[in-house]
Structure prediction request, 288 residues.
Amino acid sequence: KTSRQAGQDIHFLDGYVDVYTPIVLDDEVIGIIYLRSNLDDMYAQLNLYLIVAAFVNPPPMSIESALVTEEITSDPAGIYRMFYFHVPQALTTTVAFIVAAFFAVSYLRKRLPESDIRCYRANQIGLLFGITTLITGMIFSKFTWGMWWSWAEPRMTSMFIVVLMFGGYFSLRSSIGDPEKRATLSSVMAVMFTIAGLFMMFVVPRIAVSRHPTDSIVDSSGAITMGPTVRWIFLGAVLSYLSIAWWMWRMSVRVSEAQNYKLELDFADKNEAATTPRVAEGKSVTGA
Prediction:
């Protein structure tokens, strides 16, 4: 991304911000000042502020909106701050699987190995955040409903099935030796599992009876139910999780591309060594 302000050029790329400021003398540009700053520290500080804000501000929903049992903790409002972690993790899982499906379709259309790598890595990120969603959901369930797990709860069961599906994706992928066949079948599975996963996560819980609160973000009419403070903390948490997932995905894709490039170089070196004629040293052959 690039922006221009007061004669400055500001570029955001690969976790850095680059600032270019011209040096003007007598209406003539005689030089440029260039500054580069790593944004990792800023992101880390922002995440810390969001975590602190999540615990010092009021819970995002009323206790009565979600409690259906009498088994509550001594600090029932505190557990609802899990909302700032649990829901953004679930949204990040969804986005990662959608991104994986996008690159899966791209591979099936163009047969580019880069698309298969991006699909594979996005599914890894989605599975990771899917597992963390289950863990935070279990903590919320224990301190809200008095149980770690309930098969009768459609949202928990649906997410568990989605995690199992994509676990099967990696299992089947690892069992296929041919790279092209592996990429093709993996892409087909990624598209199918993403469609099924979206149905399990967003349709099934709305059909079956669920203990989960249904008005913590929007009500039945589509109006936002969160207050201004809660809304900004929640949006900040969502953006933070998405940024972390994007950074992890970007780095893992680069690692895969570097590994593939090294393999190509090694393969080229072996071919060059195999085709180079060997010269016998210290020997001569003469005809009779």
